[in-house]
Design brief:
Layout (H helix, E strand, L loop, with lengths): L4 H17 L4 H15 L5 H6 L12 H13 L3 H8 L4 H6 L6 H11 L4 H9 L10 H20 L1 E2 H16 L6 E4 L1 H4 L4 E2 L2 E6 L3 H9 L4 E7 L3 E6 L4 E7 L4 H9 L2 H13 L3 E3 L2 E4 L2 E4 L3 H7 L15 H6 L14 E5 L10 H10 L4 E7 L11 H17 L4 E9 L10 H4 L4 E5 L8 H12 L6 E2 L17 H11 L2 E5 L9 H9 L4 E4 L11 H10 L13 H13 L1
Parallel strand pairs: 4-7, 11-12, 12-13, 13-14, 14-15, 15-16, 16-17
Antiparallel strand pairs: 1-3, 2-4, 5-6, 6-7, 8-9, 9-10
Helix pairs in contact: 1-2, 1-5, 1-7, 8-9, 13-15, 20-21, 22-23
Bound molecules: 2'-deoxyguanosine-5'-triphosphate and calcium ion (2 copies).
């Protein structure tokens, strides 16, 4: 069927918005609004009436002019008047009209009086405090507008953690070059290692705030300065990433670090604990009455309220404060705990480096072993391997291992899990490999029941070792397929196979919550880089970040095991 009633109503509503923004005749505006309401809730599809040639002017409040427009929208899918109105205004105003809680009248004033023509400009005007200065707006309205606008930008503009890390590292290096910078940290969601960040929150300890700020503002990659002052500045980099800078004296650095690392929910919970002890915590320190009793380091902030230090990755108010109080915080896994990697590619399939180069890179990344798991034949776009090419790869790996010390290469495959849960290679071929990583790369649209059954069936194959990127999501692009995740977790536990925490920057799959669920159920987690080139092992840092957010200890992650022990575990899966 063609255009729906709701779509027609939306066109009329938008026309009314523009007319109102232009200060048009109120009766005309009301006619469009009323028509939109009528049509939006009309029980019969207007497209059907049009097909039967019945016309529309018997609908309440719809005269000949509006009836003509309905016909036009149904025939063409849009409306000349709306196109004309949109063309007559700056393009960004359309986006502004869609913001919740802001009507056309206010947008017209923001446009005329402050030159606001886009959501980004609205954010800037609000941050600069220019909106509250307008008659009839005030600080509360400014805050509400800012929240609505940043929420809109934020949902579209969060940056993946791996990309943000490159910017964080560069700006950190720039700031360290200044004598005025005594201490330095990138706080906020970045320090908590969230999978994406809204912005970077850089914290500097300095006795010469103006000099530190000037140095920050001289950073060459800055595109725009949103605000600058002696304690707070805010800029947007050429990449579009916003960076907030706060400068505090060294005696407040720990308190500011706690405050700006957040999360907000964690900080609120922490302040509650402090209050119960008659203490006050803010970004300058911990206070008993007027007296500051702590502030320079995070450890001393937590200690003053009777807690051991809590790792940034845990600070989400997900039970970390109770665990800390009970001295039951986990000893979180660290990057140095990783001895191997069970998921990497070479140029035999869709990787960009050969076996020797990948092995050298794995060794340089501090690993003792890694598995070459190129794609299987079914994934044609990745030049997947069949039995014969796998046999040749085996020989090459055996030769490499015989000739090299310092790194051991395991031979695996990333085998396609086909539509009904079959694997893309026969058992006899898979049995010759050190491990089998199963993955879904097709038929994402199956029902939850069928997708789950498909994956369980694949896991039942005796050689199946690791379920790669178990949910199939791509960050910011694609949600995971429909899946009974808890069922998969139970099955992995019964089968003894591993679930992957894929560390690839686009995936981070399992996510932090799922990894915690799986590990708590006793399923071993394999943190895999999914490296496709020699730089790919760097992703392990972000896999570790998610693992820490999932409260994982080294003991819950199989690739912290020494190679001999890992091999015993893999063999045990096969024996069932
Ligand atoms: P993001 O940037 O959206 O990825 O998330 P965060 O957590 O980095 O949030 P952001 O940049 O707005 O603020 C950084 C930290 O500063 C946040 O985690 C806690 C603290 N903070 C910011 N605004 C407030 C606030 O209004 N109240 C409290 N208690 N803390 C705040
Ligand atoms: Ca932030
Ligand atoms: Ca921020």
């Amino acid at each position: 069927m063609g255009v729906t009633n709701v779509e027609i109503a939306a066109v009329f509503d938008e026309i009314a918005d523009w007319l109102e923004l232009d200060g048009a005749n109120p009766f005309r505006i009301r006619a469009y609004r009323t028509a939109a309401r009528t049509i939006g809730s009309w029980p019969e599809a207007l497209a059907l009436r049009a097909r039967d040639g019945r016309g529309f002017d018997d609908l309440p409040g719809i005269g000949a002019d509006l009836a003509g427009k309905i016909g036009e929208i149904l025939r063409r899918g849009d409306c000349a008047l709306l196109r004309r109105l949109r063309r007559a205004h700056p393009r960004g105003l359309t986006e502004l009209l869609k913001l919740p809680g802001v009507g056309p009248k206010r947008i017209a004033r923001l446009h005329k009086e402050l030159g606001v023509t886009s959501v980004a400009k609205l954010v800037r005007a609000a941050r600069a405090g220019r909106i509250r200065a307008l008659r009839g707006f005030g600080p509360r309205t400014e805050r509400a507008l800012l929240d609505a606008a940043t929420a809109r930008l934020g949902s579209a503009r969060r940056m993946k953690i791996a990309a943000a890390a490159a910017f964080a590292d560069a700006i950190t290096a720039h700031l360290r070059a200044s004598d005025a910078v005594l201490e330095l940290a990138v706080a906020g969601s970045f320090r908590r290692m969230r999978e994406t960040v809204g912005d970077l929150d850089v914290l500097v300890a300095s006795r010469r705030g103006a000099e530190a700020t000037a140095h920050f503002l001289a950073y060459p990659a800055i595109a725009r300065v949103l605000a600058h002052g002696t304690t707070r500045s805010s800029v947007v980099l050429k990449s579009g990433l916003q960076v907030d800078l706060r400068v505090v004296p060294p005696e407040s650095f720990g308190a500011a670090l706690v405050y700006f690392t957040g999360s907000k929910a964690h900080c609120i919970a922490l302040r509650r604990i402090a209050r119960q002890q008659g203490l006050k915590i803010n970004e300058y320190g911990v206070f008993r009455g007027e007296r500051r009793i702590a502030g320079a380091t995070e450890t001393e902030i937590y200690a003053t309220v009777g807690l051991p230090p809590i790792a940034p990755e845990l600070r989400e108010d997900r039970g970390e404060i109770d665990a800390a109080r009970a001295q039951r915080l986990p000893r979180l896994i660290e990057r140095a705990d990783l001895r191997g990697d069970l998921h990497a590619h070479t140029d035999a399939s869709d990787g960009h480096a050969g076996l020797a180069a990948m092995a050298a890179a794995a060794q340089a990344a501090g690993l003792d072993y890694f598995a070459v798991t190129d794609h299987s034949r079914g994934l044609r776009i990745a030049h997947g391997l069949d039995a014969e090419r796998l046999a040749r790869q085996r020989e090459a790996i055996d030769r490499f291992n015989a000739e090299h010390r310092g790194i051991v290469v395991l031979h695996g495959v990333e085998v396609e899990i086909l539509e009904h849960g079959e694997l893309d290679l026969p058992d006899a071929v898979l049995a010759r490999l050190d491990l089998v990583v199963g993955a879904v790369h097709s038929h994402f649209q199956l029902s939850r029941a069928r997708q789950t059954a498909r994956i369980l069936r694949a896991m039942d194959r005796p050689c199946f070792s690791v379920l790669a990127h178990p949910t199939g999501r791509l960050l910011g692009e694609r949600a995971g397929y429909a899946l009974d995740f808890e069922r998969v977790v139970r099955h992995a536990r019964e089968r003894g196979c591993f679930l992957e925490l894929n560390a690839h920057p686009d995936r981070l799959d399992l996510d932090d919550v799922q990894a915690r669920v799986a590990a708590a159920a006793g399923v071993p987690i394999a943190i895999g880089s999914d490296a496709h080139d020699v730089n790919g092992f760097a992703a392990l840092r972000f896999g570790i970040g998610q693992a820490r957010r999932a409260w994982l200890t080294a003991g819950e992650v199989v690739n912290t095991l020494p190679l001999a022990e890992l091999k015993r575990r893999l063999a045990a899966i096969r024996r069932g």
